[in-house]
UniProtKB/TrEMBL annotation, chain A:
Top-rank lineage group of the source organism: Bacteria
Keyword annotations from UniProtKB, A to Z: Iron, Iron-sulfur, Metal-binding
InterPro entries xref list: 4Fe4S_Fe-S-bd, 4Fe4S_Fe_S_CS
Pfam families (alphabetical): Fer4_22
Residues covered by the 4Fe-4S ferredoxin-type domain: 278-310, 359-387
Name under which the protein is recorded: Ferredoxin
UniProtKB/TrEMBL annotation, chain B:
InterPro entries with a match to the protein in the record: Cyt_c3_hydrogenase_gsu (IPR012165), Dihydroorotate_DH_Fe-S-bd (IPR019480), FAD-bd_FR_type (IPR017927), FNR_nucleotide-bd (IPR039261), OxRdtase_FAD/NAD-bd (IPR001433), PyrK_electron_transfer (IPR050353), Riboflavin_synthase-like_b-brl (IPR017938)
Organism: Azospirillum rugosum
Residues in FAD-binding FR-type domain copies: 22-119
PANTHER family attached to this UniProt entry: ANAEROBIC SULFITE REDUCTASE SUBUNIT B, DIHYDROOROTATE DEHYDROGENASE B (NAD(+)), ELECTRON TRANSFER SUBUNIT
Record-given protein name: NAD(P)H-flavin reductase
CDD domains: sulfite_reductase_like
Pfam families: DHODB_Fe-S_bind, NAD_binding_1
Length: 398, 291
């Protein structure tokens, strides 16, 4: 497959425009009119989750989150911004690679059997509010599932493509949002993925400062197209041309987020971990780790799955389901005779070295995009940046 | 992260692969052979009429209807695309259910998967096969193919070990191979009844006595992970270097295409990069526990 995407054939990218709240509503309306299910941030169960939205009213206006190791709280912000929150527990992988999928169904036929695969077309999904870290995560999973080529170790071998993922990915319309605020577990700047979306979107919004300041300005979003489809949609929306001051304000907002990054990943974490597989720090972190698998569930790039075969009571109908799995379970590495990774130490090491180190070998990229979810949603607040730094610092002392 | 990674949205253009690698193809069992205790061989024919093409060392995911799936190496001749042969040992739920199948029953096949044994790399060399018990099953397609291309190799030597005299796999075929003038076959057992006139001891001892030119030898080792180390050690002692030794490893193979993550070992997906590895590329992982 060519790296060139079908959406890049347009001659010019039109100038950005500024949308107000009605403009944002019009964007959602237009996408819905085009047959998309629009999925965006919504308040539910005390968190901001990624659910279908029907209008701009469904967005979490005025809410921000406070995140830290093992901590997530929602609170009213200082103003009325739609995207002043940062990433929540869910990532877009649940809509591109759902937690449970039917792979095929089978029916007994005499002494044989027949197999049917689901033929439903990929859903038309529009993702509203995709942050730069999560765009990078999609690009990572594109490599994992064989949608884009890469120079990882398996590049020279037969490349498989997950057709379900590829179809959902191709059908998706992506509205990115550049971050104007960073949380205490954010570290995208240190891994080079954000806070500004560098590409891979149809439209990118930047919420202009003012909206979050009480009594100052109505909500306003600088909207820029990143693809022909995005440009075509933008042309249908009621907006005013963006001026130099709007662009400057958008840049300033992103730079503000960059300056707020709560954490940073050490450089060269890949080779660092690869040469420290027997480091005493692994035992230390293993003593704290509950092996709960939360980090793998919230991670936007973790892709491991298992299959479940279920049979009806007659025994004549079977279904094979694929569901998310986690390398933190003992079963994960089971082969006849027992599991390879019996200890919590080996399982934590597998996760972190895979994410930061062996991912490079496999896919020519890091598996970490700096979203910070694994830190926030770890019940005991284990911090991947802190663990990597501890190993690095020990080398310095060495 | 490089910026080239961030390709435009909807980057997928043409993903209409071949057949979906996640969906089993139905095959019919045409023969079932009893092997040594706990082992059996199935000869399969494709029900969709398409031939089955594989290379020695590759494996399939075999599916028993309503029970589940398991990774099994192909054990037959890669020059016969109409007969797929698997030798299976009963160890778990799926293989026990598979043991109950009879000719005429169907079985699902996904594959072939995995990186095969390299063959051309050994041209001009002596060839040494080191294996034991059921390890001969995944190695047999390679032995057959080396014999098919016999003129490209120097000496061809098989060192095979079993636990006792009762579990020598493919015994008839071992006799046939031993009867050839262009192949040495050494068989050893770990324990034998009194009066047994064959060799007793470890496979590593066979490596010590086998005749080959260590500096011009390619060795193929197909043993369990724990037994691979003494075999490689014996090869080192004879002077065969790590870049001339190929081994197989085993992990939890599930999807076969590198999507499910279960078979990872370091940066390698064993289902795609393995199960055959050149020893010098993975020697380091043998020293890390629970990797």
């Amino acid at each position: 497959m060519e790296r060139t995407a079908p959406t890049t054939g347009h001659p010019t990218i039109p100038d950005p425009v500024v949308l107000d709240r009605d403009g944002l509503d019009a964007l959602i309306d237009a996408l819905r009119g085009d047959g998309y299910t629009v999925i965006g941030p919504r308040l539910r169960d005390g968190a901001i989750v990624l659910d279908p939205v029907e209008s701009a009213d469904d967005l979490p206006w005025g809410w921000i989150d406070e995140q830290d190791g093992g901590r997530y709280r929602l609170m009213p912000g200082d103003g009325n911004a739609a995207f002043a929150h940062t990433v929540g527990p869910q990532s877009w992988k649940r809509h591109l690679y759902p937690p449970r999928q039917t792979l095929w169904t089978g029916r007994r036929d005499g002494r044989g059997f027949t197999v049917d695969t689901p033929t439903d077309p990929a859903p038309r999904q529009a993702f509203l509010g995709v942050r730069a870290c999560d765009l990078a995560a999609m690009a990572v999973q594109d490599r994992v599932f064989g949608v884009t080529p890469h120079d990882g170790r398996s590049a020279g071998q037969e490349r498989f493509t997950d057709t379900g993922y590829a179809a959902r990915r191709a059908a998706a319309f992506i509205v990115a949002v550049n971050c104007g605020r960073a949380g205490r577990t954010c570290f995208c700047d240190s891994v080079g993925t954000g806070p500004k979306a560098a590409g891979g979107y149809d439209l990118a919004l930047t919420e202009l400062p003012g909206a979050e300041l009480p009594g100052r300005g109505a909500p306003a979003f600088l909207a820029a197209a990143g693809s022909a489809a995005g440009a075509a949609l933008l042309a249908r929306l009621p907006g005013r041309p963006a001026g130099a001051e709007d662009r400057a304000a958008a840049e300033a907002a992103v730079e503000g987020a960059r300056a707020q990054m709560g954490r940073a990943m050490v450089s060269d974490a890949g080779p660092l971990l690869a040469r420290n597989l027997e480091h005493p720090r692994w035992a230390e972190v293993a003593a704290r780790c509950l092996n709960c698998a939360n980090c793998t569930m919230v991670c936007p790039t973790c892709f491991c799955t298992t299959v479940e075969d279920s049979t009806d009571l007659s025994g004549d109908h079977v279904e094979r389901w694929r569901r998310w799995d986690s390398c933190f379970t003992v079963d994960f590495s089971y082969i006849h005779g027992g599991a390879i990774r019996q200890s919590g130490l080996s399982r934590y090491r597998q996760w972190m070295t895979h994410k930061l180190s062996s991912w490079w070998e496999q896919f020519g990229t890091s598996g970490c995009t700096g979203c910070g979810r694994c830190i926030t949603w770890c019940p005991v607040g284990i911090d991947i940046t802190e663990e990597a730094r501890a190993i690095k610092d020990s080398e310095g002392r060495g | 992260m490089d910026s080239a990674l961030l390709s435009p949205a909807g980057a997928a253009a043409d993903f209409s692969n071949k057949a979906d690698p996640m969906v089993p193809r139905p095959f019919r069992i045409v023969r079932r052979l009893r092997e040594v205790d706990g082992c059996f061989t199935l000869v399969l024919e494709s029900l969709d009429g398409r031939p089955y093409v594989f290379r020695p060392g590759q494996f399939n995911m075999l599916y028993v209807f309503g029970v589940g799936e398991v990774a099994i190496s192909v054990s037959g001749d890669c020059r016969d695309p109409n007969r797929l042969v698997h030798t299976v040992r009963e160890v778990g739920t799926v293989t026990r259910a598979m043991a109950a199948l009879r000719p005429g029953d169907s079985i699902g096949v996904r594959g072939p998967f995995g990186h095969p044994w390299p063959i051309e790399e050994a041209y001009g060399h002596d060839v040494l096969f080191v294996t034991g018990t059921i390890g001969l099953a995944p190695l047999r397609p390679l032995i057959m193919e080396v014999l098919n291309r016999r003129e490209h190799f120097g000496k061809v030597v098989l060192c095979y070990g079993s636990r006792g005299t009762h579990d020598i796999l493919y015994e008839k075929q071992l006799h046939q191979w031993r009867g050839r003038f262009d192949m040495q076959v050494h068989v050893t057992v770990h324990s034998a009844p009194s009066g047994y006139r064959g060799r007793v001891g470890s496979v590593a001892n066979l490596v010590k006595i086998a005749r080959f030119d260590p500096e011009q030898t390619t060795a193929y080792v197909c043993r369990s992970e724990t037994m691979t180390r003494p075999a490689v050690q014996a090869l080192y002692e004879r002077g065969v270097t790590a870049d001339r030794i190929y081994v197989t490893l085993e992990r939890n193979m599930k999807c076969g295409v590198g999507f499910c993550g279960h078979c990872q070992m370091g940066g390698s997906f064993m289902c795609k990069d393995g199960p055959v590895y050149r020893y010098d590329t993975i020697e380091h992982v043998f020293s890390v526990r629970e990797l």
